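Ex. 9. Protein: MFS transporter.
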Amino acid sequence: MANPYRELFNAPGARAFVLAGMIARMPISMTGIGLITMLSQLQGGYGLAGAVAATFALATAFCAPQVSRLVDRFGQRRILPVSALIGGGALLLVLLCTRLQAPNWTLFVFAAIAGCMPSMSAMVRARWTELYRGQPQLQTAYALESVLDEVCFIVGPPLSVGLCVVAFPEAGPLAALLMLAIGVTAFVLQRSTEPPVHAHEEHHKGSIIRSREIQWLMLLMVAMGIIVGVVDVVSVAFAQQQGQPAAASIVLSVYAIGSCLAGLAFGALRSTVPLPRLFLYCGVATAVTTLPLLLAVNILGLSLAVFVAGLFFAPTLIVAMALVEQIVPPAKLTEGLTWLVTGLSIGVAIGAAGSGWMVDAFGARSGFWLAIAAGVVVLGSAIVGASMLAMDLNENAG
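Predicted C-alpha cells for MFS transporter:
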C-alpha cells in the first residue's frame, strides 16, 4: 500500500523547504519559555519574567498576520529576511539588556519588537498549497504540518529550558535566535518552491480578518487553544496535587501523542465528505471529548482523558486550514492561514492564564471547567460556521 506521506515528497524541493521550515519555526515554541527561564534565573522571581514573555506572545499575535499580509503582497523572499532580522535583532537586544542589567522597560520594548518574527508554519503551508492546490494530497500535507507543529511544541520548550539551566541563562533564547537565522535563510534561498505573488483584486483589499468565515474559524481556533492551555497548566497542578509532579510530563506527552497519531491517520484518509460537514463532525467530537477531563481522579485517569481529548485536535486543525485554502483568495492565503495560527496562540495564553487563576482559587480539577466552556464555544462555532461555509462554497461553485 502506497504511503501518502512519502508521495508528498515526490515534488521537487519539498524535503528541503519542510526541513528549513521546521528549523525556522522552532523559535516560536522556544522563545517565550526561554525568556521566562532566563529572567527568573538572572532577576529572581517570575513576575517580570512572565510579563516580558506575555509581551512577546501578544506582540507575535498582533504582528504575525501583518507580516503574512506583506508576504502575500510582496513575496516570501522579500519580506521574510526583513521580518526575521527585525524580530531576531530585537530578541538579541533583550538578551543584551538582561545581561547588562538595563532598565526593565527596555525588556518590554524589545520583547514587543521581537514579535515581528514570521509565522513559518503558515509559510510552509503556503508552499504546500501552491504545489497541491485542488488535489487530495493537500489534506495530507496539512496533516503533516499539524504533526510537525506538535513536535515543535513538544521538543522546543524542554530544549530551551534545558539550555538555560545547563549552559548559561541566555542559552535558550540564543539557540532560538540562531535557528531563526539559519532556518529562514535556508527557506528563502529555495526559490523554486516559493509561491508566486498573486494579483490583488479591488474588492479583496484590506485584511482578510474582515471575512465572516475567517472570524468564525478563528473563534474556533481560540477555543481550541484554550483547551490546550488548560491541559498544560492543570496537568502540572493535578500531578503536584497527587504528589507525583514528574508525572505531568507523561500526561502532556500522552496528549501530544494522541493528537499526532490522529493527525497522521486523518491525513492518510481520502474522504469524500464535504469539508464543511467534516468541520462540523470534528467540532462536535472536539467538544464531546473534553467531557472525560472532569472524571479524572488519578494520573492514569487523567492520562486516558487527555489522550481522548487530543484525538480530534489535529483533524479539526487540518480541516480548518483546508477550508481557508478554499474560501480565501490566493492573494491572501498566507494571511488567512496565519490568523488561524494566531487564534490558536491567543487561546493557549487565555487557557493557561484562566486555568491558573481557577487552580489557585478552587483547586486543580476546577481548571477543567474552563476547557468544558471552550468546548461549548467549539461546538457553537462548528455548527454556525459549517452552515455558513457550506453556503459560501456552494455559491462559489455555482
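Check your answer against this statement. The chain has a mean pLDDT of 84.
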